Amino acid sequence: MGELVEVAFGQRRAEGCAPVCARARCPAAPSPALETASLPPRPEPLPEQQRLWWRIWSAAPGIGWQRLKELEQAFGSLDRAWQASPETLGRALARSTRLGPRGLEALLAYRSALGPAPLSDAAGTAHRQRWRGQRVLVHGDASLPTSLGELERPPLELHWQGRGSLWPCLRARRAVAVVGTRRPSRQGESMARAIGRALAEAGWPVVSGLAEGVDAAAHRGCLEAGGRPVGVLGTPLERVYPRHHEALQEQVGSEGLLLSEQAPGTAVRAGHFAARNRLQVALAGAVVLVECPHDSGALHSAQLAWDTGTPLWVVPADVGRFSAAGSNSWLAQGASALLDPADLIRSLGPGPLHAAGEASQPGGQRLIEREAALLAALGAGASLDQLCQRLRQEPGRISERLLQLEMAGLVCSQPGLWWQPR
Q1: Cα–Cα distance for residue pair 365/389, rounded to 1 Å
Q2: Is the model's pTM score more than 0.85?
Q3: What per-residue confidence (pLDDT) applies to 393?
Q4: Average pLDDT of each block of 10 consecutive residues along the chain (422 residues)?
Q5: Cα gap 352→250, rounded to integer Å
Q6: Number of C-beta neighbours around residue 243 at 10 A
């Protein structure tokens, strides 16, 4: 596959060859981005108060990424925006984002229901804990992959379930996305399964959408080899679509990671499934398109990969096969043909999970030493309140430390704000 250059999502940068060479992607050398990239340093955590205000505004009706940034720019901070008069708030949002009277009315009703000081001491610890949330990342959180923030429309929130120890791999884009049609041929489904299995055996997390067809086959192949699948959902985490994937989704959430930008209780819309494509590509260092017709959403993922310089592999199929007309067209545009999963592994090299436990990733031992007091206080298991009492620290600080331990695969959370060693 040519020299596969490291590319920051949202930018194209060729190192050591001209842009046309990066697009040709001859299968000669492993990808520096995938083979030698080290895990990125963890940035400073977002201040808790700023994070909580982001979550409060994110849940407001009619507020998306553009309006959130407009509020920050217009008022200096989200807490000041909360205190603005209805007229000032309406003018700020109508000027650039065209929020109409009905939208403003719904927003003001939401603000009125929460009161003028939703984060005050009078609101109570339980109320603050609701906004603090468990297993949710927002813009500015240290563990959120920077590639997601570089998207044209970054996710407001990213809810997750499963093995947090996979986040360092995703932050470094050391994973491979496998995409394709919901109705593949037998050959396409078999190939997707074989690719998922080969990637898992080589230590690569496998990113896909948990949809019918190619997605499910890639996840199953990954699981069969004892790998770590990453399912990017178009529904909230508590919803399963298609419904007969309940067992598969549960297994992916147990052995790997489930992600969704949809908050719990969000109504499912068709556009949510297309929107997740950008997340899959942003989390992966390479994309494999197995099989899809001309009208498939998988072509969106392929286009995103191509536009951002992310290495794109395509599995060839019969010229007359309708289900592969879209994927075959990418071969004519210069995408790399993938005839055998072994060719992919030879190009990528060993993955970040190859022959090593996740807890032994760089920095794992240093984290254990740094959090020895918290791990000792945790014992066989403890609630958040118990840990706050034992360590005499605020819930926000304890939650932040617990999240780091969970993302290193050292602890796991249970319902009722209960934590225990993994």
Answers
A1: 26
A2: no
A3: 87
A4: 32 31 37 46 64 91 90 93 94 84 94 89 61 80 88 92 90 95 95 97 96 97 96 96 96 96 90 93 96 93 94 92 93 93 92 66 68 84 86 83 80 77 79
A5: 24
A6: 8
The SS3 call for residue 46 is coil
Structure-token pair, residue 270: 């068709």
Q: What pLDDT is attached to residue 405? A: 84
Question: Given this model, what pLDDT does residue 365 score?
Answer: 67
Cα–Cα distance measured from residue 172 to residue 352, given in angstroms and rounded to the nearest whole number: 10
- The 10 Å Cβ neighbour count of residue 20 is 9
CB atoms within 10 A of CB 115: 12
The secondary structure element, H or E, covering residue 289 is strand 286-289
Half-sphere exposure of 31 (CA within 13 A, CB side): 32
Reading the block at residue 217, the tokens are 């086959």
Q: Enter the tokens of residue 376.
A: 């000792």
113-121: which pairs have CB atoms within 8 A and are 24 or more residues apart? 114/56, 116/82, 116/83, 118/56, 118/82, 119/49, 119/52, 119/53, 119/56, 119/79
**302 vs 278: CA distance, rounded Å:** 10
Spatial separation of the C-alpha atoms in residues 138 and 157, rounded to whole Å: 5
Residue of 280, 225, 277 lying closest to 255 (CA atoms): 225
- Nearby residues of 315 by Cβ (< 8 Å), 6 or more positions away: 188, 191, 195, 288, 289, 290, 291, 327, 337, 338, 339
> Residue 191 phi/psi, 5° resolution?
-65, -40
Residue 104: its pLDDT value, please? 93
Task: Cite the DSSP H helix spans in 84-231.
Answer: 86-97, 101-114, 125-132, 146-149, 167-171, 186-201, 214-224
Q: Determine the 3-state secondary structure of 68 from DSSP.
A: helix
State residue 96's pLDDT score.
72
Q: Tokens standing for 55? A: 């979550």
The pLDDT assigned to 311 comes to 94
